[in-house]
Automatic annotation (TrEMBL):
It comes from the Eukaryota. This is ARM repeat superfamily protein. Belongs to the Integrator subunit 7 family. PANTHER family: C1ORF73 PROTEIN (PTHR13322), INTEGRATOR COMPLEX SUBUNIT 7 (PTHR13322:SF2).
Length: 333
């Protein structure tokens, strides 16, 4: 799927459905969500966006209406989605047109929504208001944020990458966005690379083919001496995202293990141990190998920081092995 060039189009009107949604407000908690356009006063706009974020989180916790609820509130099935798309379009326009403080505020909203969705006990693909099934205008969202990436400075490009990561559910399948994320991994700016690592990690949770490409780039990145140390360590941390399915986790684990054994840097080794422990903790078949590795490192003479990290990883891995794995094919929730 490719993105077309952005062309300005009017935001859909929600005035016709507003009366019905006023009656729906006790369920959604979004009584004032039509006021998403960028206010003229900067201070007021930040306050308004933060309030919108709080109300969207309430909506996110209970995003589905039953047939009975549609009837009670006099809604036509699908009107809630139209309303949600209109709200998101206004937020996206605020991101496109607003200053960096407004952009940062909007990013925080979507980061929070993403965290809440990942922590949810409900793993339905259509769960939450960030799901692809809820957002029919998602291609328009991506086009407008891509404008920011194409025309903004390094900080704005990084913000756009973080937003793409938050929208991984529908951004991961769009070729232009995948290319942006992958190509940004080799940017000369450390801030942009770290943002692309975040976005790529989000994509990896949902796309197996993207994960395999990401692993190859990540491997080259962390061994390159031309890349700054903090960026290399950020790349090592990103290995922990490569944990599903098992074929990918096994490949990532073996790759990380080789890099670990070839490294003499304690800081690199410590971060890689943490990532490998996180990967192994997801699969029973990898836990025994990780415990054996950690036990070996405990007996070696290394720095105190590295030994402390090894013991923490051993405790973490043992706890996961005992508590969270009823079968070899189960993934820790």
């Amino acid at each position: 799927m490719m993105l077309l060039e952005y062309t300005s189009s009017p935001v859909p009107s929600v005035t016709q459905t507003w009366t019905k949604f006023q009656r729906l407000a006790p369920w959604t908690g979004v009584l004032s969500l039509t006021r998403v356009s960028v206010p003229k006063k900067p201070g007021k706009s930040i306050e308004a966006i933060k309030e919108i974020g709080c109300r969207l989180e309430c909506w996110n916790r209970d995003s589905k209406l039953t047939v009975a609820e549609y009837k009670i509130f006099g809604l036509i099935p699908g009107e809630d989605k139209l309303f949600l798309n209109a709200i998101f379009l206004r937020l996206v326009d605020a991101f496109r047109l607003g200053d960096k403080d407004i952009k940062s505020c909007i990013i925080n909203i979507f980061l929070s929504l993403r965290r809440k969705r990942r922590r949810s006990s409900v793993k339905d693909a259509d769960c939450g208001i960030l799901s692809k099934g809820k957002l029919e205008n998602y291609m328009e969202f991506l086009r407008r944020v891509k404008v920011v990436f194409d025309t903004g400075d390094v900080e704005e490009r990084s913000m756009a990458l973080v937003l793409f990561g938050c929208w991984a559910d529908f951004a991961k399948d769009v070729a232009d966005i995948r290319y942006i994320v992958l190509s940004s991994l080799v940017s000369d700016d450390a801030y942009e690379v770290k943002a692309s690592l975040f976005a790529a990690g989000c994509f990896c949770e949902l796309s197996d083919d993207f994960s395999n490409v990401f692993l190859e780039i990540l491997t080259r990145m962390v061994i390159s001496l031309e890349i700054p140390r903090d960026v290399r360590l950020a790349g090592v941390r990103a290995f922990a995202k490569l944990c599903c399915p098992f074929s990918l986790a096994d490949k990532a684990y073996k790759t990380g293990l080789k890099l670990l054994k070839d490294s003499s840097e304690d800081d690199f080794s410590s971060v890689m141990l943490i990532s490998l422990s996180k990967i192994a903790s997801k699969w029973t078949l990898l836990i025994s190998a990780q415990i054996e590795l950690l036990t070996l490192f405990v007996s070696e003479e290394r720095s105190l920081d590295f030994q402390a990290t090894t013991l923490r990883c051993l405790n973490f891995t043992l706890a996961k092995g005992v508590c969270d794995f009823p079968s070899a094919t189960d993934i820790v929730p």
